[in-house]
Design a protein that fits this description.
10 helices, alpha/beta, 31% strand, 33% helix, single chain
């Protein structure tokens, strides 16, 4: 299991949102390069970096800062936030990102994103499957989680398998930033349905016990690290032995 410590950026600051709500923002630092460097010193290999300014308005994308974080930390970085075009992906890869996370665009223009997976390579693209539960089914949310689509989660993933899709980041929006525990049942079901997909869990991680037996290949951890509920070194050590606490 890969541990992805998370940094969300607004105006150059390290923040976390509650369930994606910009009105419920907590600021954890003003020097994201130093935060990323601390993660590297703790032993992390990867960083999950979200440009929330870019998600709201592409004119405010923080590509320069993202490049500084990558160069300053030495971490492999997967990054996203409002990816609207092939040019956005190219710019982030050129800035040094190892992988770009694409969400709403994959719902709205399947063909374009399928071509990106084929052209940039499956290791360079991660689909963001941000889900909300409606009438007992998990549906893909779009527009910065502000609206639900009519696309079921399983259909969303299946639609890209022929393109060579390898990486999927699934966020249960109802749990994001809540520290109420990840939706282990959802991830186990996804992994059973798509065993060939490298699945990342995001949303709700509250303690190291949440990693025990989590049926994913990676997990995003944000608020729990910032608030001291999880020691990153301990989480990395646990992940290295397969996500078992005993």
């Amino acid at each position: 299991m890969i541990i992805y410590p998370a940094i969300d950026l607004i105006a150059g600051e390290v923040v976390r949102l509650h369930k994606g709500d910009f009105e419920q923002k907590t600021t954890y630092g003003t020097d994201p390069v130093s935060v990323a460097r601390a993660y590297a010193e703790a032993g992390a290999a990867w960083l999950h970096l979200v440009d929330l300014d870019g998600a709201k308005d592409p004119a405010n994308r923080q590509t320069g800062l993202i490049a500084d974080i990558i160069a300053g930390s030495g971490l492999k970085v997967q990054t996203g936030g409002g990816i609207r075009s092939r040019a956005d992906v190219e710019a982030l890869l050129a800035a040094g990102a190892s992988r770009v996370v694409i969400g709403s665009l994959a719902v709205r223009d399947r063909e374009a994103v399928g071509a990106m997976i084929r052209d940039f390579g499956a290791e360079s693209i991660c689909l963001a499957a941000d889900v909300v539960r409606q009438d007992g089914a998990f549906m893909i949310a779009v527009s910065g989680w502000q609206e639900a689509s009519d696309l079921p989660l399983s259909d969303f993933i299946e639609g890209f398998r022929a393109d060579g899709l390898r990486h999927v980041l699934c966020t249960d929006i109802d749990r994001d930033g809540t520290m109420t525990g990840p939706n282990a049942g959802l991830y186990a079901e996804m992994k059973a349905d798509f065993p060939d997909i490298e699945l990342q869990a995001s949303g709700g991680v509250k303690g190291i016990e949440d990693l025990d037996g989590l049926a994913t290949d990676g997990v995003i951890i944000g608020r729990a690290i910032y608030e001291g509920a999880i020691d990153l070194k301990a989480a990395l050590a646990l992940a290295a032995k397969g996500g078992r606490t005993c």
